[in-house]
Amino acid sequence: MIQATGVDHVVLHVSDVQRSKSFYTEILGMTSYREDEGQVFLRAGGQGVALFKKVDGTPLTTGNDLNHLALNVAPGTYDTLRTELEKHGITVTGRPGEDRCIYFRDLDGHRLQLMVDK
After folding, report:
1. Torsion of the alpha carbons at 16, 17, 18 and 23, rounded to the nearest 10
2. CATH number of domain containing 18
3. What is the DSSP annotation of 20-84?
4. What's phi and psi for 59, nearest 5 deg?
5. Which of 8, 64, 82, 95 sees the fewest Cβ atoms within 10 Å?
6. Residues 26-61: pLDDT tens digits?
C-alpha cells in the first residue's frame, strides 16, 4: 500500500500568475520557491500552493471542484485579520457563531478560509 505522508501542493488556475503571486505573498505571507512564466509555487508553512496560468481561453470556474482552500494562520484575532484583509479591499465573511473562520475570495474568485488558532 502507498502511504501518503502529507500534501505537497494544491494547484489553483489563475488568469494572471504575477498578480496572483502578489496577492498570496503580500497579503497572505506565502513565499515563492519556484516559478517560471506560466506558474509559481508558494509555501504556506510546510504545504504548497501552485498558481498555474489558465491558458486555453475558457473562463475560470471556481468553487465547483474545489470548494475552498483553508489556511492556518499565525496567532491573531478574527478582528485584526479581518481588518487586514479589508484594508486591501477584500470582502470578508464568516460562519455564524464561529468567529475563528474567515472566508474571502482571491483575485480569480477562489474561496479561501483563514483558520484562527484559539
Report:
1. 90
2. 3.10.180.10
3. HHHIIIIIT--EEEEEETTEEEEEETTEEEEEEE--SSPPP--SSS---EEEEESS--HHHHHHH
4. -65, 150
5. 64
6. 999 999 999 988 899 999 988 999 999 988 777 777
50 residue type, one letter: A
Give the three-state DSSP class for 86: helix
Cβ atoms of 9 and 49 within 8 Å: the answer is yes
Secondary structure of residue 5 in the 3-state scheme? coil
Residue with cell 489553483: 12
Kindly report whether the global pTM for this prediction surpasses the value 0.70: yes
How many domains is the chain partitioned into structurally?
1
Beta bridge partners of 63: none
The contacts of residue 111 (CB under 8 Å, 6+ apart) are 62, 63, 67, 68, 69, 103, 104, 105
38 lies in a domain? Answer: yes
Q: Domain containing 104: what range?
A: 9-55+63-116
